[in-house]
Prior knowledge:
With about 260 residues, the protein is mostly helical. The chain has one domain. It has helices at about 20-35, 55-65, 85-90, 95-120, 150-170, 175-185, 195-200, 205-210, 215-240, and strands at about 250, 255. The longest helix has 25 residues, at about 95-120. The termini are far apart.
Amino acid sequence: MTEAAEPVVDEEVPRTTRPALDVLDRDQDRLLYEGDPTREPPIQPLSEGFDSAFYALSWYQAAGIRTLGHVDRVIEPADMLPLSGLLEKLLTVDDDRQSVYIRRRLVEKLDDACDLAYRQFRERAGERVEDAGGETWKDVDPDEESNPLMRPAFRQLDQGQAAALLNLWTGFEDRETLGRWVRSLSAPTNGEKPSGLLDEIVASPPLLEALLDQDEQEAKVTRYRFAMSAVMPSFLSAARTLSGGERTDSSGPTHGAFNS
């Protein structure tokens, strides 16, 4: 009696003929499961937890871009504040069984937010079979594409937001540097910067002092809270309102115009 042949398992990741959707799907997978060490600052995956509050802050900002602002349907910015009960479970220093379970459930719940972003973006992700140069959708490698959603505008927004948070995290030398930072938020918020933000800062001496204190750990905690409560909602709004019609002109080693 001959043994039944084992089924052949196709390990190839399913692809569509819309490479921009494949890129978005891959970006979301990194966000939840694999991380992205090539991005600056690196994205640590939610499933494994974060090494510090700064990486948690960076992850949330990156999640805003890669879910088109819908990450707050599962995790609101207020949920990420210190002593909220959730942030402590996301940090690897508290890597007990309950923390692992909570991170797993958040990953599962965020799948719906990722699907919503996918559905919203699919109307802008044009189908490609073959372009004038003979390249097809198969020539685009989602693992090599550096632009989120294959859109340079979203990469620019991602980089601008990440840089703004890094500057905030390290603190400011003086009032002028702080004022110029607030003014620079127009681009990374896509014009959604909160009205009167600088006046709000100046009206709160403890907050102003914390933003200008580059050394004290307690000041970093205050700056983290400010980033999450005052800045992050505008970043999410920017991800929701950015059109990003221009398509990437390269993907990894493959160059040339490629409308996705």
